[in-house]
Amino acid sequence: MKTAGCVSLIPPPSYLILLAATLLVAACDFQLRGYAELPFNTIYVQAAATSQFATQVRRAVQAGGSTRLTDAPEQAEVLLQILNEAQEKQILSLTGGGRVSEYQLRYRVLFRLTDGKNREHIPASEIVLRRDYSFSDDQALAKESEEAQLYRDMRSDAVRQLVRRLQSAKL
């Protein structure tokens, strides 16, 4: 039996669940992580000229709030020194035939934060990230690409960790 021109005012149960979830998230004051508000006005990033990590840190600072990058350490309120950046690769396991089946990749960044009077606000600290991946000689080219992608991901993760540490620095 068909009813002509009749519209149901009762929403389906899936809409009620979606509405309830939306109200719960809004009620707990949930917010997406926004840009980094750093506790200083100017920063100078000192690193090797070819450091991709330092380039990403500079981008993160520029994309953030009111903190700006300076061209000289004397102009900056704080100096971020990237002391060392290293990519390491270690064999995790071998097959019965003695071929590599797994590697562990490590990405390390050593840094410190000082001010114009050479007071340390963050003493020399290290961020270490690790990723394991399986390796196959049959897929060597694809595995090289996967390794490069893992290093890029670890570098991005390290930048986010560093920015969070900078946010919590006490001046």
Give a structural overview.
With 171 residues, the chain is of the alpha/beta class. The chain contains three helices and five strands, in the order H-E-H-E-E-E-E-H. Strands 2-1-3-4-5 form a five-stranded mixed sheet, with helices on one face. A hairpin with a 5-residue loop joins strand 3 and strand 4. Helix 2 packs across helix 3. The longest helix is centred in the last third of the chain and has 28 residues.
In short:
This protein has helices at 13-27, 52-63, 140-167; strands spanning 42-46, 68-69, 78-94, 100-115, 120-134.
Describe the structure using short key phrases.
flat, 3 helices, 5-stranded mixed sheet, 32% helix, alpha/beta, 171 residues
C-alpha termini separation: 75 Å
- Which consecutive residue ranges, at least 5 long each, have pLDDT under 50? none
Biggest sheet record: 5 strands, mixed
H-E string: HEHEEEEH
Gross morphology is flat
Tally of alpha and pi helices:
3
Strand content: 25-35%
Topology of this protein?
Layout: H1 13-27, E1 42-46, H2 52-63, E2 68-69, E3 78-94, E4 100-115, E5 120-134, H3 140-167
